[in-house]
Automatic annotation (TrEMBL):
<comment type="subunit">
    <text>Homodimer.</text>
</comment>
<dbReference type="InterPro" id="IPR004839">
    <property type="entry name" value="Aminotransferase_I/II_large"/>
</dbReference>
<keyword id="KW-0808">Transferase</keyword>
<dbReference type="InterPro" id="IPR015422">
    <property type="entry name" value="PyrdxlP-dep_Trfase_small"/>
</dbReference>
<dbReference type="InterPro" id="IPR000796">
    <property type="entry name" value="Asp_trans"/>
</dbReference>
<dbReference type="InterPro" id="IPR015424">
    <property type="entry name" value="PyrdxlP-dep_Trfase"/>
</dbReference>
<dbReference type="InterPro" id="IPR015421">
    <property type="entry name" value="PyrdxlP-dep_Trfase_major"/>
</dbReference>
<keyword id="KW-0032">Aminotransferase</keyword>
<comment type="similarity">
    <text>Belongs to the class-I pyridoxal-phosphate-dependent aminotransferase family.</text>
</comment>
<protein>
    <submittedName>
        <fullName>Aspartate/tyrosine/aromatic aminotransferase</fullName>
        <ecNumber>2.6.1.-</ecNumber>
    </submittedName>
</protein>
<dbReference type="Pfam" id="PF00155">
    <property type="entry name" value="Aminotran_1_2"/>
</dbReference>
<keyword id="KW-0663">Pyridoxal phosphate</keyword>
<feature type="domain" description="Aminotransferase class I/classII large">
    <location>
        <begin position="27"/>
        <end position="392"/>
    </location>
</feature>
<dbReference type="GO" id="GO:0008483">
    <property type="term" value="F:transaminase activity"/>
</dbReference>
Amino acid sequence: MWKEIEAAPADAILGLTEAFKKDKNPGKVNLGVGVFKDDAGTTPILNCIKTAEKKLVETETTKGYLPIPGNPAYGAGVQKLLFGADSEVIRSNRAATLHTPGGTGALRTGADLLKKFKPAAKVWVSTPTWANHKGIFTAAGYEIADYPYYNAETKGVKYDELIETLEGVPAGDVVLMHVCCHNPTGVDLVGEQWDKVVEIAKAKGWTPFLDFAYQGFGDSIEEDRAAVEKFAAAGIDFVVASSFSKNFGLYNERTGAFTIVTPSAEETAVALSHAKLTVRVNYSNPPAHGGLAALTVLADDALYEQWIDEVAGMRDRIKAMRAKLVDGLVARGVEQDFSYIKEQRGMFSFSGLSDDIVEWLKVNKSIYIVKGGRINVAGLTSKNIDYVCDAIAEALKA
Ligand code: LMR
């Protein structure tokens, strides 16, 4: 049957890694996919996870199925991170959490669940957004609409246009927003800007769908969840797709969560019953290992402290490499102002490099950057930073 069918294009992000692996240039640099790397260029297993895994192996007694929403203690641990341990949302049972295969699994679970009850709803996504967002929601049958977000001139958010657009989103539509460390731009809404967004969501009745994949990579676990707390305090319906890929380094364990918040415990119970049906016909129940490892860390005070330190270490390394990249370009006489890269948050730098430059760097220097100019800053190391700065400086002069 495949004879008449054309091959699909490579994935915009993961396809770059496939091309990178085939590249024979020993100096090649992968600044594509968003995975943390240490200064030696490896993606480490966090020490807290190593310890947790040892504990798990010793104490685990079964590989029997988890319940459809996963281990209830995992859900409780996720909720403490999302809302804070003293949150009213937790006390009043207004939230239900399902352990999902990664953040992507959470996004798809949420997309399918909301589609069932709002079949005509559109999903609104930021311009630009993570390359896979449109794919996930299109696959779930949604029509996609765009809201203005990144301002390439000011390197900030197009706040007024964003607000105007959100005011016009019809009730029942879904608005997908990045809680922190916006992917790909690294530019976030702050404080009162979020208050305004929450106020509009409440007044207009659209459903906020929060994508929270980088908790801890902005300022801290607590500060990064500020927007989630604001939505929670509003007493409205919203959902959160969260991920432990980045902050626990559990990329290949596919460890994420889908959390539903409603105005009452009764509504949340109903929503959870339907989410369970959605999961059952999709992947049945979640993979256990990553979630149990993360839970082991969250449940142990010493491991939790170690985790907080390790997240801070990752965050600080990325910030340091931002500065080295910007300073390295200045030192090479590059006239274009890249100082905004130092202000961007999270793993990525929306570099401002054109697609032509991105292609030139791949073809001539074996430096892999996502189309649109998104650089994984965590891919820069003391070994490759000079090579990358030299290459960008040369590309800009070419
Ligand atoms: C990224 O944006 O690079 C990561 O979230 C990995 C992925 O799945 O695309």
